[in-house]
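#dry-run=false #mode=assembly
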Amino acid sequence: MYVGCHRARRRRRPLQSLSKPRLSKPRFAVSPRFHYIQNEMTSPIDLPCDGCGQFASTEHIARRLQRLEWATRYRPVHVHTLFLGSASPQKQEEFLYSPNGEFQGEAAALLEVVGVSTAGKKAEAVHAEFQRAGFFLTHILECPAENESSATMALSLLMEQRLTAVAVRIRRSLKPKRMVLISRTLEIILRKFVALQLGCPLVLDDGKPFALDGPDTQKAVANLRGAVSASAV
Ligand SMILES: [Zn+2]
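#status=ok
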């Protein structure tokens, strides 16, 4: 029986390997373009980023994947309240799920809204508390706006291009009980966003997104805190 198996294995060996010597050189030349990409990992690549639609460098893609990993770690199994911003903050310290625990800007404002204190806590304890309450934060553009995209028109176009993908993610994956818009920048696409019919209530500030990125953050925080606790289920 062993001999039979052995014979079968021998029969399956490619004839070429028995009859021809090994090639010492690769049979295909590496194209100059491929060679360039391999050796210049910091150079821009001509592809739009899946998370924001902007033309992306390899560092941009790496930072997006890092943010995605940090956020996914603290995504509740059942999302109760989905906070939705326009674009991920420019500074890592302002990105809620960053593990550095500085909680500045948008991150600080949102934690104040939901009453999660950061004093004396490690970042992971703060993230876990936010997660346990059923809260999750995401952005229409998963990356910060690059210089040339920060103009209102460019931002509006980028967000419109992302709407279908965001809607699919909300309907099929996140499935929140309610959604809260937290960037005033979202106002430029609000009508199109409402038309998506995402199957859950949208919490707004007198018909507009809450302006956590506006000039009066404290007022926005107070309004949002009231709305979040008033409509808590
Ligand atoms: Zn991106």
